[in-house]
UniProtKB/TrEMBL annotation:
Protein name: TetR/AcrR family transcriptional regulator
DNA-binding region: 24-43
Endoplasmic reticulum in keyword set: no
Gene Ontology MF, one: DNA binding
Pfam families per UniProt: TetR, TetR_N
Organism of this sequence: Vibrio sinensis
Membrane-spanning intervals of the chain: none
Residue span(s) of domain HTH tetR-type: 1-61
Keywords from the named record: DNA-binding
Keyword Zinc: no
Amino acid sequence: MKTRDKIVLAALELFNDNGERNITTNHIAAHIDISPGNLYYHFRNKQEIVREIFSLYSCELLERFTPIQEQQESLVMLKHYLASIFNLMWKYRFFYANLPEILQRDEGLHDDYIKVQEKLQANLVNIMRVFVGLDLLNVSEREMKPLVTTLHLIASSWLGYQSAMSPKTQITEQVIHQGMLQMIAIVKPKATPLGLEQLQLLEEGVKAIHA
């Protein structure tokens, strides 16, 4: 693995485990046993590393939430998107936990974030249209964007909300699963009988993980 990639992966691990604000470039360099000078050869400062992680996150986010073209069972598709929510929130949890602070100090990153999220929301509306076509959801065209916005709001702010509600909250897989259950709860009232049956199966599967 190239040194640049090692730096990014080490930073992601340390940010997730300790909080991005608590980690310096010296911590990152020591974690992979390189000199600070070697790190600065690849990245001028920590913020450049944060931008590189955001770039990886953005690519993965848009790839995971591109409408699936080939025919698949509806439950398989629902599981795919739900698993994608969990995987991204867990893999990049430092970003979700401190989103406003990270964006406020980097105007360029904030602009990039908005552009990515606009693309994501357009993809999510198209995904919802697919689920309406599969008779899983009963959502009008007018209702789609507000519903997508609500789901997006929960996903992007859930970890920050949990931290705000308790100063001792630790980001665990269970906390993220609670956010997923909250999103399922929002969608349920708009589900058809078939959709409700499949959402309940997903809900039971999430709950069973921590039973």
